[in-house]
Design goal:
Elements lengths: L4 H10 L9 H11 L6 H9 L6 H22 L1 H13 L17 H6 L3 H16 L3 H9 L5 H14 L7 H12 L5 H13 L4 H17 L3 E2 L9 E2 L7
Parallel strand pairs: 1-2
Length: about 240
Protein backbone atom coordinates (compact mmCIF):
# COMPACT_ATOMS: atom_id res chain seq x y z
CA UNK A 1 0.00 0.00 0.00
CA UNK A 2 1.34 3.42 -0.93
CA UNK A 3 2.25 5.62 2.02
CA UNK A 4 0.43 8.40 0.20
CA UNK A 5 -2.71 6.29 -0.05
CA UNK A 6 -2.92 5.17 3.58
CA UNK A 7 -3.81 8.54 5.19
CA UNK A 8 -6.68 9.17 2.77
CA UNK A 9 -7.89 5.58 3.22
CA UNK A 10 -7.84 5.91 7.01
CA UNK A 11 -9.79 9.15 6.78
CA UNK A 12 -12.34 7.41 4.58
CA UNK A 13 -12.83 4.33 6.76
CA UNK A 14 -13.32 6.45 9.88
CA UNK A 15 -16.55 7.70 8.36
CA UNK A 16 -17.87 4.28 7.29
CA UNK A 17 -21.60 4.18 8.09
CA UNK A 18 -22.49 2.05 11.14
CA UNK A 19 -18.85 1.45 12.08
CA UNK A 20 -18.76 1.31 15.89
CA UNK A 21 -17.21 4.43 17.41
CA UNK A 22 -13.55 4.30 18.35
CA UNK A 23 -13.09 0.95 16.59
CA UNK A 24 -11.57 1.97 13.27
CA UNK A 25 -7.96 2.10 14.50
CA UNK A 26 -8.30 -1.29 16.22
CA UNK A 27 -9.63 -2.85 13.03
CA UNK A 28 -7.04 -1.16 10.82
CA UNK A 29 -4.14 -2.10 13.08
CA UNK A 30 -5.10 -5.76 13.33
CA UNK A 31 -5.83 -6.04 9.61
CA UNK A 32 -2.46 -4.55 8.68
CA UNK A 33 -0.69 -6.75 11.22
CA UNK A 34 -2.31 -9.87 9.78
CA UNK A 35 -1.36 -8.70 6.29
CA UNK A 36 2.24 -8.57 7.58
CA UNK A 37 2.48 -4.80 7.18
CA UNK A 38 3.79 -3.72 10.61
CA UNK A 39 5.44 -0.63 9.12
CA UNK A 40 1.96 0.80 8.41
CA UNK A 41 0.77 0.51 12.01
CA UNK A 42 2.52 3.67 13.28
CA UNK A 43 0.62 5.62 10.62
CA UNK A 44 -2.66 4.29 11.99
CA UNK A 45 -1.66 5.20 15.54
CA UNK A 46 -0.56 8.74 14.65
CA UNK A 47 -3.72 9.26 12.61
CA UNK A 48 -5.73 8.34 15.71
CA UNK A 49 -3.93 10.40 18.34
CA UNK A 50 -3.24 13.51 16.25
CA UNK A 51 -6.87 14.34 15.53
CA UNK A 52 -8.08 17.70 16.80
CA UNK A 53 -9.53 17.60 20.28
CA UNK A 54 -7.88 14.34 21.39
CA UNK A 55 -6.83 14.80 25.03
CA UNK A 56 -3.81 13.27 26.78
CA UNK A 57 -6.12 10.84 28.56
CA UNK A 58 -7.70 9.81 25.26
CA UNK A 59 -4.28 9.30 23.64
CA UNK A 60 -3.33 6.93 26.45
CA UNK A 61 -6.58 5.03 25.98
CA UNK A 62 -5.97 4.77 22.22
CA UNK A 63 -2.44 3.45 22.80
CA UNK A 64 -3.64 0.84 25.29
CA UNK A 65 -6.53 -0.22 23.10
CA UNK A 66 -4.30 -0.66 20.05
CA UNK A 67 -1.81 -2.71 22.05
CA UNK A 68 -4.55 -4.90 23.46
CA UNK A 69 -6.03 -5.45 20.00
CA UNK A 70 -2.65 -6.60 18.69
CA UNK A 71 -2.17 -8.89 21.69
CA UNK A 72 -5.56 -10.49 21.09
CA UNK A 73 -4.80 -10.77 17.37
CA UNK A 74 -2.02 -13.23 18.24
CA UNK A 75 -4.73 -15.82 18.88
CA UNK A 76 -5.84 -15.50 15.24
CA UNK A 77 -2.88 -14.28 13.18
CA UNK A 78 0.01 -15.78 15.13
CA UNK A 79 2.43 -14.44 17.70
CA UNK A 80 5.24 -13.43 15.26
CA UNK A 81 3.00 -10.90 13.48
CA UNK A 82 1.78 -9.48 16.79
CA UNK A 83 5.37 -9.16 18.01
CA UNK A 84 6.41 -7.23 14.91
CA UNK A 85 3.29 -5.06 15.05
CA UNK A 86 3.72 -4.22 18.73
CA UNK A 87 7.38 -3.38 18.30
CA UNK A 88 6.53 -1.10 15.37
CA UNK A 89 3.81 0.55 17.45
CA UNK A 90 6.20 1.05 20.37
CA UNK A 91 8.63 2.95 18.15
CA UNK A 92 5.87 5.43 17.32
CA UNK A 93 4.55 5.74 20.87
CA UNK A 94 5.70 8.52 23.23
CA UNK A 95 7.17 7.12 26.44
CA UNK A 96 4.34 8.70 28.44
CA UNK A 97 1.88 6.41 26.64
CA UNK A 98 3.76 3.16 27.33
CA UNK A 99 2.99 0.75 30.17
CA UNK A 100 6.19 -0.48 31.78
CA UNK A 101 6.79 -3.94 33.32
CA UNK A 102 6.05 -4.23 37.05
CA UNK A 103 4.00 -1.02 36.94
CA UNK A 104 0.26 -0.51 36.42
CA UNK A 105 -1.27 -3.03 34.01
CA UNK A 106 -4.63 -2.11 32.46
CA UNK A 107 -5.37 -5.79 31.78
CA UNK A 108 -3.99 -7.27 35.03
CA UNK A 109 -2.91 -10.35 33.04
CA UNK A 110 0.24 -10.71 35.10
CA UNK A 111 -1.84 -10.97 38.25
CA UNK A 112 -4.20 -13.39 36.52
CA UNK A 113 -1.28 -15.59 35.53
CA UNK A 114 0.47 -15.69 38.90
CA UNK A 115 -2.12 -14.85 41.56
CA UNK A 116 -5.49 -16.10 40.34
CA UNK A 117 -6.37 -19.82 40.29
CA UNK A 118 -6.12 -21.16 36.75
CA UNK A 119 -9.53 -22.78 37.11
CA UNK A 120 -11.15 -19.35 37.47
CA UNK A 121 -9.49 -17.96 34.35
CA UNK A 122 -10.24 -21.08 32.30
CA UNK A 123 -13.87 -20.95 33.44
CA UNK A 124 -14.10 -17.34 32.29
CA UNK A 125 -12.61 -18.36 28.95
CA UNK A 126 -15.11 -21.19 28.55
CA UNK A 127 -17.96 -18.79 29.27
CA UNK A 128 -16.62 -16.38 26.65
CA UNK A 129 -16.30 -19.22 24.13
CA UNK A 130 -19.84 -20.37 24.90
CA UNK A 131 -21.14 -16.85 24.44
CA UNK A 132 -19.49 -16.52 21.03
CA UNK A 133 -20.56 -19.90 19.67
CA UNK A 134 -23.92 -20.12 21.41
CA UNK A 135 -25.80 -23.39 21.00
CA UNK A 136 -23.01 -24.99 18.92
CA UNK A 137 -20.20 -24.24 21.40
CA UNK A 138 -20.01 -27.78 22.79
CA UNK A 139 -19.87 -29.24 19.29
CA UNK A 140 -17.13 -26.82 18.17
CA UNK A 141 -14.96 -27.45 21.22
CA UNK A 142 -15.61 -31.18 20.94
CA UNK A 143 -14.41 -31.15 17.33
CA UNK A 144 -11.14 -29.58 18.44
CA UNK A 145 -10.77 -32.12 21.25
CA UNK A 146 -11.25 -34.91 18.71
CA UNK A 147 -9.01 -33.39 16.02
CA UNK A 148 -6.43 -36.12 16.45
CA UNK A 149 -4.79 -34.36 19.37
CA UNK A 150 -6.63 -33.04 22.38
CA UNK A 151 -3.92 -30.40 22.60
CA UNK A 152 -5.82 -28.34 20.02
CA UNK A 153 -8.72 -27.98 22.43
CA UNK A 154 -6.33 -27.23 25.27
CA UNK A 155 -4.68 -24.50 23.20
CA UNK A 156 -8.09 -22.96 22.47
CA UNK A 157 -9.02 -23.03 26.16
CA UNK A 158 -5.77 -21.30 27.11
CA UNK A 159 -6.22 -18.63 24.43
CA UNK A 160 -9.81 -17.94 25.40
CA UNK A 161 -9.03 -17.98 29.10
CA UNK A 162 -5.91 -15.88 29.36
CA UNK A 163 -6.09 -13.75 26.21
CA UNK A 164 -9.49 -13.35 24.58
CA UNK A 165 -11.90 -13.32 27.54
CA UNK A 166 -10.08 -10.50 29.31
CA UNK A 167 -12.34 -7.50 28.66
CA UNK A 168 -10.57 -4.96 30.87
CA UNK A 169 -9.51 -2.83 27.89
CA UNK A 170 -11.65 -4.01 24.96
CA UNK A 171 -15.29 -4.97 25.28
CA UNK A 172 -16.56 -8.37 24.21
CA UNK A 173 -17.90 -6.86 20.97
CA UNK A 174 -14.61 -5.08 20.25
CA UNK A 175 -12.77 -8.33 20.88
CA UNK A 176 -14.98 -9.93 18.22
CA UNK A 177 -14.11 -7.12 15.80
CA UNK A 178 -10.43 -7.89 16.40
CA UNK A 179 -11.02 -11.55 15.55
CA UNK A 180 -12.92 -10.65 12.38
CA UNK A 181 -10.13 -8.28 11.32
CA UNK A 182 -7.59 -11.07 11.81
CA UNK A 183 -9.59 -13.74 9.97
CA UNK A 184 -10.64 -11.98 6.76
CA UNK A 185 -7.07 -11.47 5.42
CA UNK A 186 -6.37 -15.18 5.92
CA UNK A 187 -9.25 -16.43 3.72
CA UNK A 188 -10.59 -18.78 6.41
CA UNK A 189 -14.34 -18.60 5.90
CA UNK A 190 -15.24 -21.53 8.19
CA UNK A 191 -13.83 -19.68 11.19
CA UNK A 192 -14.97 -16.25 9.98
CA UNK A 193 -18.61 -17.37 9.76
CA UNK A 194 -18.55 -18.37 13.42
CA UNK A 195 -17.03 -15.10 14.56
CA UNK A 196 -19.36 -12.92 12.49
CA UNK A 197 -22.24 -14.54 14.37
CA UNK A 198 -20.17 -14.43 17.56
CA UNK A 199 -19.94 -10.65 17.30
CA UNK A 200 -23.75 -10.53 17.39
CA UNK A 201 -23.71 -12.76 20.46
CA UNK A 202 -21.21 -10.35 22.02
CA UNK A 203 -23.59 -7.42 21.61
CA UNK A 204 -22.84 -5.94 18.17
CA UNK A 205 -25.59 -5.21 15.65
CA UNK A 206 -25.80 -6.72 12.17
CA UNK A 207 -25.09 -3.30 10.65
CA UNK A 208 -21.98 -2.86 12.83
CA UNK A 209 -20.58 -6.28 11.95
CA UNK A 210 -21.14 -5.66 8.24
CA UNK A 211 -19.38 -2.30 8.54
CA UNK A 212 -16.38 -3.93 10.24
CA UNK A 213 -16.23 -6.53 7.47
CA UNK A 214 -16.38 -3.78 4.82
CA UNK A 215 -13.47 -1.87 6.37
CA UNK A 216 -11.29 -4.97 6.59
CA UNK A 217 -12.00 -5.94 2.98
CA UNK A 218 -11.16 -2.41 1.82
CA UNK A 219 -7.84 -2.48 3.65
CA UNK A 220 -7.04 -5.89 2.22
CA UNK A 221 -7.85 -4.80 -1.32
CA UNK A 222 -5.79 -1.62 -0.90
CA UNK A 223 -2.88 -3.86 0.13
CA UNK A 224 -3.19 -5.98 -3.02
CA UNK A 225 -5.57 -8.83 -2.16
CA UNK A 226 -8.05 -9.76 -4.87
CA UNK A 227 -10.88 -12.21 -5.37
CA UNK A 228 -9.43 -15.37 -6.89
CA UNK A 229 -11.27 -18.23 -8.52
CA UNK A 230 -11.82 -21.46 -6.62
CA UNK A 231 -9.29 -23.22 -8.86
CA UNK A 232 -6.67 -20.46 -8.97
CA UNK A 233 -3.18 -21.93 -8.65
CA UNK A 234 -1.48 -18.67 -7.76
CA UNK A 235 -2.20 -15.14 -6.56
CA UNK A 236 -2.97 -13.48 -3.26
CA UNK A 237 -6.55 -13.15 -2.21
CA UNK A 238 -9.81 -14.95 -1.46
CA UNK A 239 -10.83 -18.14 -3.25
CA UNK A 240 -14.50 -17.38 -2.67
CA UNK A 241 -16.76 -14.59 -1.49
CA UNK A 242 -15.78 -13.33 1.94
CA UNK A 243 -18.38 -14.62 4.41
CA UNK A 244 -21.00 -12.12 5.50
CA UNK A 245 -24.12 -12.00 7.64
Amino acid sequence: MSKNLLPSLLTSIRSTPNLPSHSWYLIAGVTLSTLNRPADIPHVFRHAIEQDGVSAEQRLAIARRMREALVKAAAIGGLPKSINALFALKQATPSSLLDQPLEYSPTQRSAELYDVPASRILSRGQSFFDQIYGKVSKRVMGQMDRSGTEDLGITARLMYGYVLSNTSVLTAAESSFVLIAGLIPQDVNPQLKGHLKGALNNGASVAEVRAVREVVVRLCEASGMTRLGEDASSGWGWRGEVANL
